Amino acid sequence: MATLRIKFLATSIQMQMHLLVFLPESIARPNANGSSRLKVLWLLHDQGGDCSDWTRLSMVEHDAQRADIALVMPDMAHSMYMNMAHGGYPYFTYLSEDLPRHLRNLVQVLSDRREDNFVAGVGAGGYGALKWMLRSPQMFAACASLSGDVDRVAALQHKQAAGTLTDDWIAAFGDTTRLAGSPDDNLQLARQRAATGEAPAPAIHLAFSRHDESCQRDAQAARNLQQLGFVVREHEEATRLGWPYWSERIGDFIAKTVAAER
Amino acid sequence: MATLRIKFLATSIQMQMHLLVFLPESIARPNANGSSRLKVLWLLHDQGGDCSDWTRLSMVEHDAQRADIALVMPDMAHSMYMNMAHGGYPYFTYLSEDLPRHLRNLVQVLSDRREDNFVAGVGAGGYGALKWMLRSPQMFAACASLSGDVDRVAALQHKQAAGTLTDDWIAAFGDTTRLAGSPDDNLQLARQRAATGEAPAPAIHLAFSRHDESCQRDAQAARNLQQLGFVVREHEEATRLGWPYWSERIGDFIAKTVAAER
Amino acid sequence: MATLRIKFLATSIQMQMHLLVFLPESIARPNANGSSRLKVLWLLHDQGGDCSDWTRLSMVEHDAQRADIALVMPDMAHSMYMNMAHGGYPYFTYLSEDLPRHLRNLVQVLSDRREDNFVAGVGAGGYGALKWMLRSPQMFAACASLSGDVDRVAALQHKQAAGTLTDDWIAAFGDTTRLAGSPDDNLQLARQRAATGEAPAPAIHLAFSRHDESCQRDAQAARNLQQLGFVVREHEEATRLGWPYWSERIGDFIAKTVAAER
Amino acid sequence: MATLRIKFLATSIQMQMHLLVFLPESIARPNANGSSRLKVLWLLHDQGGDCSDWTRLSMVEHDAQRADIALVMPDMAHSMYMNMAHGGYPYFTYLSEDLPRHLRNLVQVLSDRREDNFVAGVGAGGYGALKWMLRSPQMFAACASLSGDVDRVAALQHKQAAGTLTDDWIAAFGDTTRLAGSPDDNLQLARQRAATGEAPAPAIHLAFSRHDESCQRDAQAARNLQQLGFVVREHEEATRLGWPYWSERIGDFIAKTVAAER
Question: Which residues contact B150 (CB under 8 A, 6 or more apart)?
C-alpha cells in the first residue's frame, strides 16, 4: 500500500499542479515479470473542493484497497474542468493530456490499457468525467457521474434565467453562446460520438439525488444519452444526498464495474 | 518549534486556501502570563510558485528559528496579488483582510501589533508586499521586496511594447488603462500616502539583481519612492541572482530589521 | 472550515510529533465576544496506522462537519499508547500531557471544558482512549473504544500462550508481569477509580465485531467494567467488521453522544 | 520539476514509512526513447529530524535543480540508522533493502546504476550514509558525511564515560559491547572492506566543524579510514556550524562530485 502526494510543473498550464495517488497493497508483492499493472480509477472533485476531498469525505480508499485498484485524484482548482473562458488557463488540457502522460512516465505501476481505466467525479467533477470519456473514448472502460449536472448548457441557461450565475461559472464557461455546441457541451460530444457510427462509448453511470438542485436536468440528460444509443446506468436516490450517498455510489461503481471488468 | 499547514475556506474568495506557518522554539517554553506574542514575517511567493517556496528554496526557516520569529506563508496561486481583472477572484482581499483575521483567530501566539509585523516577497510577491504595506501602513513596521518589479504599470507597458504580455498578466491586471492610477498601482498608492501629510510609511527595502529583467524599473521605482519622501533601503546586486541572492537578502532583513525592531 | 496539519517538537518525548486538526465551518463565522469554543473529539488510530487514518478511511470529517465539532487526530507511531517498555519513549505522557497543553496554547478555538471533550479510538487507539479517560476523568465527558481489545493484560496473556507475541507488543508492554496492575492496565485503573467512591467516570462506549479476534475479551471487559459500577454502552456487531463498521459507529457516537451533550 | 511525498507500508518493518522525492525539471522534457534516468542523491536526516529537514533547512533543492539530479529523502524517525537494539524495529534493513527496491519499482525515472547513485547525511544521517556505502559499495559512487560522528563506537564510549548517554542512544545501539565489531561499526566495516583486496570503495567525503562536539572523533576517523587505504576528502571548518555550513557543503558535493561524475 502506498499513497503519493505529487506536485509537478505542468507544461500545458505553466503551473505547479497537485494530485494524490493511492496504490493498493498488491504493489508491495514481488512480481515475477514486473509487467503486471494496476487498474486505475481517475477521481474528480467538485468545484470548491480539492484533490483530497475523495479520500477525506468518502470511504473510497477502503473500497480501492479491497478491490486492489489504484486511485488518481488530480487537483483542478476552481476550473470547472474547463479551459477557462477568462484568464487563459487550459485546465482541461492539463487533465486530459499532460497529466496521464506525465503520471505514467513517473509511476510505472499504473496500467494504460483502456479496459483498466475508469473515470468518475462528483458535481463539476461528474461533468468533467463524462466529458473526458466522450472526448477520449479510447482511454476509459466506463465513467460515472455523481450529481454531475452533466448538461452544463442547460445548467448555465437555468442560472442565467434564475439570476444565480456566479463569477466562477462565467470565468470558466463564459456564456451559453460560447458553450452550446462547443467541445465542452457534453450532449454535443455525445451526438458527434453517436454520428461516427463506431461502437458507442462504454456504459455511462449517472447517479443523482432528488435533493440535488440539478436532479431534473440530470434525469433529462440520461434520457437524451439513451436516445443517442448510449447505455446509461441510472441511479436516482429518493432520500439521501451528499457524501453518504456519493460514498455508497462510488463503492458500488468500484465493486460492480471497476473490479468486475476484464 | 512547530510548523502548521493550514487549509481553510476563505469567505471572501469562496475557495479553500492554503498557508504554511512556522513558529520558533520559544512557543514551547512555559510563559508566565501567556500574553507574550511572536513577531511575524509575512512571506509572499512569486508567480508560478506556491506557499512552500520560501521554506524549500531558501534558508529562511533557519533564520527565523535563530531570530525567534514566526513566518506566515500564504498560497496566492497565480493571482499576481490582484483581485483578478478577469475571472472574478478577489485574491488580494483574501490576503489583506480574510487571512490576518482568520489566522489570528485561529493561532493565538501571533502578535497583531504593528511593530511586530513585517511583510516581504519575491517577484510578484515583492510587488504584493509593497502594495500591502502601502494600503495598510498601520499593519507593518517594514516591508521588503526582492526582485519585485514593484512598478507594475511600467512593467505592463514594457511587456505590451515588447510583445511579451502573457495570459496570466492579462487575467490578473487587465491592461495598463485599468491598472495605472488604480489601487493596484504602487506609485499611485505611494503618492496618495505622501499626500496625507502623515508620517511616511516605514522604510521600504528594495533588493534586486542586475541580472533581473526588471532591474532598471526597480531602480527607477526606488528613486521615485525616495522623491516622495519614503526611506528606501536599496540593495543592488552585481553578480548573483535567484534564490542564493534572495536567501541571503531575507536573512539580512530578518537579522537587521525584523529582529532589531522594538 | 479548516484543516491543520501540525508538527511540533514535543518536550516530553524530544521528537517532532504530527497531528491533524479538523475545524468545522462555524469557525469562519464572526463571533460577538470571541469566547465561544468548539467541542473536541480526540481520535486515536490503530497500531500500524497514523494520524491520517480516521479522515482517509472513515466518514468522520463529514460527521464532524454536520455536528459542528472539532477533531484532533494525533500521530502515535507504533507506541501502542504506552510509555514504551523498551526504548524509553514516553508516548503516553506526550499524548495526555504535552499535546493538550501545547495544542490549546496554539489553537484557541478548542474548548477545554470537560463537557466539551470526548475521546475515541480504534484498535490500540481504543485501548488508549479508555486508558486516557480513566487516568484523566476530569478531562472527558465520554469515551468510545472500537474493537479496542481494552484489557491488554488478557490480550498479552493470550498472545504469550498462543505464541503470537510480536516484537512491537514486547517493545511497548514488556511482559504481563510488568503490565498487570500497572497504570497501563485498564481494569486496574477502573478498580482504582471505583474505589475512590467519587461519582464514576462517564459512560464507556465499547463497540466490537464478532469477527474481531479480540471479541470475547472485549465482551468480558464490558462485564467487568459494569460490575465495577461503570455505565457501559456496548455494541456487538454480528456481520460487519473493519472500517465500514467503525465509520458507522463513530458517526453514531458523534450524533448521539458528542453532539447531544450539554 | 516534481516533488513526491510518498507513504508506503514497508514489509521489512511493518510500518508506514514516509519519504520525499525531488525530481528536476528535465523529467518534463519529452524523451526520445524513454530510457534515460536521473542521477540520485540519497539524503539522510539527523536524529530528532525528519524527511523534510533537508528541503526546509538547506538550499539543496535549488542545487539539485541546477545540477539536474533527483533527491530521495527518507524518514528514519529516531532510529539512528540502526536495526534497533531494543524494540525490534529493523530501520536500517528498511533503508538499505526495502526502500531502494520499492521506490525504483514505483518511480521509474531514477537510475539504479552505481555511477548515478550517491548518499549523504547530516549528524546521525552522516553516520548512516557512510555505513550504507560501506555495506553496499556496489550501490554508490560516493558518500558524504556532514558532522556525522561516523565512529559511533568511539562516540558511545565517550558518552558512557561522560555520563551523557541518553535513552535514544541506548534504544538504538544498546551498549559498546554490542556495537564494537558489529556490522554497525563503521571502522570495522572499513577494515573488512579493505581486507577483501578489492578496489577500495569510492572517495569518502567527511565534513565537520570545529564547533561540533564530535569534531575530534571525526578527524580521527578520517585518519583511520585513510590508513586503511580509502580516499578521504576532508573538510574541516573553523568558524561556521549548523545548517549554513551543511547547506554550503551539500551544494559543493552536488556541484563537484554528483554532477561531475560520469
Answer: B126, B127, B130, B186, B206, B218, B221
C-alpha cell at D100: 531502494
C-alpha cell of C193?
477509580
> What's B151's DSSP letter?
-
Chain C nearest C-alpha distance from A62 (Å): 6
If you write DSSP's letter for every residue of B59-70 in order, what string do you get?
SHHHHHHHHT-E
CA D261 to chain centre: 18
The C-alpha cell at C212 is 474481531
DSSP code for B38: B
Q: Which parts of D22-98 fold into alpha helices (H)? A: 53-57, 60-67, 91-93
Residue A15, chain D, CB below 8 Å: the answer is no
Question: What count of other Cβ atoms lies within 10 Å of the Cβ of residue B256?
Answer: 12
C-beta neighbour count of B232 within 10 angstroms: 16
Residue B8 corresponds to which amino acid? Answer: F
- Asked whether the beta carbons of C214 and C155 are under 8 A apart, the reply is yes
Those chains having 3 or more beta-carbon pairs within 8 angstroms of chain D are A, B, C
Query: pLDDT tens digits, residue range B133-192?
Result: 999 999 999 999 999 999 999 999 999 999 999 888 988 998 888 999 999 999 999 999
B58–chain D Cβ distance below 8 A for any pair: yes
Buried b / exposed e over A195-219, threshold 16 CB at 10 Å, is: eeeeebbbebbbbbbeebebbebbe
- Pairing status of strand D40-44 against strand A232-237: unpaired
The C-alpha cell at C199 is: 461519582
Summarised one tens digit per residue, pLDDT across range C110-140 is: 999 999 999 999 999 999 999 999 999 999 9
pLDDT at residue number B18: 96
CA-wise closest residue to B95 among B74, B126, B117, B110: B74
Q: What pLDDT band is residue D262 in, cutting at 50, 70 and 90?
A: low
Nearest to D69 by CA among D120, D21, D106: D21
Q: How far apart are CA C135 and CA C122, in angstroms?
A: 18
For an interface test with A, the pick among B78, B80, B89 (most A C-beta atoms closer than 10 Å) comes out as B78
Task: Give pLDDT, residue C14.
Answer: 84
Q: Which residues contact C247 (CB under 8 A, 6 or more apart)?
A: A59, C57, C58, C59, C60
Nearest Cα neighbor of C22 from C52, C57, C50 is: C52
Residues of D in contact with A28 (CB under 8 A): 8-9, 11, 102
Q: Which three cell numbers stand for residue C76?
A: 502515535
What is the ipTM score, two decimals? 0.93
| Chain A nearest C-alpha distance from B16 (Å) | 7
What does residue A38 show for φ and ψ, rounded to 5 degrees?
-90, 145
Beta carbons of C242 and A56 less than 8 Å apart: no
Q: How many other C-beta atoms can be found within 10 angstroms of the C-beta atom of residue A2?
A: 23
Cα B94 to Cα B82: distance, rounded to the nearest angstrom: 10
Asked if B21 and B36 count as a contact pair (C-beta separation under 8 A), the reply is no
- State the Cα–Cα distance between residues B110 and B69, nearest whole angstrom: 9
What are D257-260's contacts with CB under 8 Å, separation 24+? D257/D118, D257/D142, D257/D144, D257/D203, D257/D205, D258/D39, D258/D41, D258/D67, D258/D69, D258/D118, D258/D142, D259/D39, D259/D67, D259/D68, D259/D69
